[in-house]
Amino acid sequence: MQLLAAVGWDGNDQMYPIAYAVVEAETKEAWIWFLRLLFGDIGSPNHHKWCFISDQQKGLLPAFKEVAPTVEHRFCVRHLHSNFSKLHKGKQLKDAMWDAAKATTVVDWKREMQKIKDIDKAAYTYLMALQPNWWTRSAFSTFCKCDALLNNMCESFNGYILEAREKPIIKMLEMVREALMMRMQEKREFIKNVKGPICPNIQSKLEKLKIKCRKCLPTWCGQRIYEVKCFPDKFIVDLDARSCSCRKWDLTGIPCIHAISGICHANEKLEDYVNEVYTVETYKRTYEHMIHPVASEKFWPDTGRPVVHPPSQRRPTGRPKKLRRREPDEPRDSYRVSKKRVQMRCSKCHQYGHNRTSCKGQVAAKKGKGMGNAPAKKKGQAVEGGKNKGGLH
Q1: What percentage of the chain has pLDDT greater than the value 70?
Q2: For the whole prediction, is pTM greater than 0.85?
Q3: b vs e for 41-80, b when ≥16 Cβ sit within 10 Å of the residue's Cβ?
């Protein structure tokens, strides 16, 4: 069985669970069923603008084509690169692909793609076959105020419910509901202590951008338009349109360094130019809805309907997966010591190349520093190096 989930970003740039469901398998039919229920709750894509980012799960892309063919759909660049690197390896290509994905303008994207073409024409052809709005910021729409390239929020949700996923269905769903119920209340209490109009994580980003904007030189052109020099380039900032030619402000709703330099030149508040999705008031409205408590099973009313039996168990081979599968070229945890290229030594015969379990040799004599037993201490005596150094009375 599989747990399907839809997760979003809240105004503080953190995880906001929207919907989840248990299905027999991750198939096109299961995703179609899930998406139809989801759009029934959040609103039809024909009347609302929605943007989705996914890991190319099984059956999800054809499900979107059937249920919501016009919705904007992005792919996690880390997973795209994983497939890309199977055919086109090398750090140089990896860095060039990520630079192309991070490019916010078509001009910058074309420049990075030309670099890829110069390195490997086959790699260039592979990437050009992908729709640009799937993976590069230069082709992202600006309505959703999100420029995310990674699907980290779903990974955060998976880690959040890791313990619950091992339980039977009803127990699992109850544990997830309780965890989300407490999370919603914690967020409501958290925002009460926030001072200022902007959510803390966004305010922190603004402070960092303020420092970076010192290298920008704004020139007032008239009305509320500025030409901003940021060596070696120049950008056009329109404060009324809340737009910059670098497109970072347009994509995120957070003023870029060029816009900040213009806003500071006009002696206006930065917070007034941050999109309303990041305000404390919007955050409060996001979490004002409560997940209601549920009494124990003995208090549940009898529906009079047929008993729902669990689906047939489909146990795959191998140990059940708990953590996300890491790609071969993905950085490992820097705090864990790698065993790569470490020669194994047997603790029984002291020979290299195997361990105690598979050892067929003889027990080695205990000798050398650290191999013998420490001499026993007699009561009232101090021992050093196996010799009595004096009595304690």
Answers
A1: 85
A2: no
A3: eeeebeeeebbbbbbeeeebeebbeebbeebbbbbbbbbb
